Amino acid sequence: MYHCPVELALDVIGGKWRTVILAHLKERPHHYGELRRKVPGISEKMFVQRLRELQDAGLVARAEVPPHVEYSLTEEGRSLGPALQALHDWGVLRAARTGVVIAQA
């Protein structure tokens, strides 16, 4: 039982890595290696685990497109688009206000 809708949302997408993966997939589908390179600083084991969690939550789809594996957002994952965009926009503004540099991948 949840006591707040935000609690439910964070249970599904919470944590740094899940949200970052979703943000990259919001742009477009990615092959595994390409997506992996866009998320530096995470171990391979953790990356695979987070991808599986997102698949289990019904937010990310995995498709084999020989010779690659491709990940994309499901319809449920795409419904997060406005929330992910709002987080992105806030992060850009926050970085500008505080002088934080965001590396472009």
UniProtKB/TrEMBL annotation:
Record-annotated HTH hxlR-type domain positions: 4-99
Keyword match Transcription: yes
Listed Gene3D superfamilies: Winged helix-like DNA-binding domain superfamily/Winged helix DNA-binding domain
Name under which the protein is recorded: HxlR family transcriptional regulator
Keyword Transcription: yes
Listed InterPro entries: ArsR-like_HTH, HTH_HxlR, WH-like_DNA-bd_sf, WH_DNA-bd_sf
UniProt cross-references to Pfam families, sorted A to Z: HxlR
PANTHER family the record matches: TRANSCRIPTIONAL REGULATOR, TRANSCRIPTIONAL REGULATOR, MARR FAMILY
Keywords: DNA-binding, Transcription, Transcription regulation
CDD domains for this protein: HTH_ARSR
SUPFAM superfamilies, sorted: Winged helix' DNA-binding domain
GO molecular function: DNA binding
The species this protein was found in: Lentzea atacamensis
